[in-house]
Amino acid sequence: MLAGRMVVVGGGTAGWMTAAALAHKFAGTPARITLVESAEIGTVGVGEATIPHIRHFNATLGIDEADFLAATKGTYKLGIEFVDWGRKGDSYVHPFAEFGAPIGGVPFHQLWCAAREAGAFEAYSLPIQAARRGRFRRPDGDPYNYAYQFDAGLYAKFLRGYAEARGVVRREGKVVDVALDGESGFVRSVLLESGEALEADLFIDCSGFRGLLIEQALHTGYEEWTHWLPCDRAIALPCANAGPIAPLTRATAQDAGWIWRIPLQHRTGNGHVYASGFTSDEDALRTLLGAIAAPPMADPNRLRFVTGKRRRQWVGNVVAIGLSSGFLEPLESTSIHLIQLAIGRLLDLFPTRDWDPLDAAEFNRLMALEYERVRDFLILHYHCTERDDSEFWRHCRNMRLPDSLAYKLALFRERGVVVQYREGSFLEPSWLAVYLGQHVTPRHCDPRAGGAGAAAAMAAMRTRIAALAEAMPAHEAALGMPA
Fold it and tell me: What is the pLDDT of residues 363-412, one digit of tens each?
């Protein structure tokens, strides 16, 4: 294993997550880890929502949950509520848990689709019922998971303290040039504005959309996906909390995109993700201002992006992590998850002094699959809609799908079968939440569904779940916040 000099270019969430993980991995070795960032260059970080995998990342680093929540003003998250996606007036939740339980070997969703009169699908999800009531309790024998909502800037600050306490050296400065080795094509050093050159064996590019190393120096190329995901701009705007703090992230569909709402302990993060080809920047801001629940606490932060990924995310001795590797809009809270995945893959395939090209090839293969799987899941939300009230939604309804998604969707529509990808972060319950939440129902159910006793068993499930949710403490109480 190569445990020499490592330079992380860029801070923010990606940079400090990477530095913290490297510091933990190489504790007690001669490895030298340097992170270079400039206070003059802002980061994209706004209020961030996550999926449950972040708990494993924090636990691996030995981070205490209470300390983390206090430092990041974090809240618990039981799922994502989608409003107005399938039809105007809709509301469904994508939870981190199974729905119901099989009966007689028949998958629960098949039973529910056959019954038709068995109540709302979400009535069979404990985390959804808890979230709808504004309640939270850590799982105690009940099979569900949870994630967090937190201030990404504060998380980066928290991880900076963790990393520096374990030997990571932060260098202030802007990278103005990159020196390449004429023979290998590897990056030899990065030149700072001060004139100092930082040499390293391994460089991790966390420089954001610019991709200072992976793109500007190595010209990797970019695979664009805006023909499937046309949103290309966002406006972030925090406001004060208004009312109870929900253990849910909310995504509300608009005429040309959607608005996020992420409740934290000290504020609510809001933002409008939209397609500039279907609305103006001015109208997008007006839409956002009309949707927030309290006066803004800052000026609007405007972002432009191109959905897609680098053609290769590991080239030579440079590994791109975070926005430098690609961008998928935060509809399913996957931004930090993709950072975490890349860090994990890098540590699993960490280069030796021989620099075996198979390490980079396998990293690139796995990360490409992850990006494509998330891409497909995001496209599903846009395509499976009955809305035709704007040009944007008509475009999404009629777009041609990637073959991987078209096959998956066709099989569910026909038989209710959820095709499992070999790799990918979203499992069967996630797909079911969106399919059924957006009115995609199978034409034919499992022939074993609807047997005697199923209705009574399903009613008992609903009753038990409602009682368990009602008995949970309020979300604020679980956080230790004053009533």
Answer: 999 999 999 999 999 999 999 999 999 999 999 999 999 999 999 999 99
| Beta pairing partners, 202 | 6
How far apart (Å, rounded) are the C-alpha atoms in residues 270 and 264?
11
Residues ≥6 apart with Cβ < 8 Å to 426: 332, 373, 374, 377
Give the global pTM.
0.95
In the block, residue with structure tokens 């691996």: 60
Give the tens place of pLDDT for each residue, 9-31.
Answer: 999 999 999 999 999 999 999 99
At how many degrees (to 10) do helices 12-25 and 335-348 cross?
30
Neighbouring residues of 96: CB distance < 8 A, sequence distance ≥ 6: 51, 52, 78, 79, 127, 144, 145, 146, 147
Q: How far apart are alpha carbons 475 and 289 in whole angstroms?
A: 27
Task: Write out the catalytic residue numbers.
Answer: 77
Cα 301 to the chain's mean position, in Å?
Answer: 20
202 contacts: CB under 8 Å, gap ≥ 6 = 2, 4, 5, 6, 7, 317, 319, 351
For strand 75-77 and strand 147-151, is the pairing parallel, antiparallel, or unpaired?
antiparallel
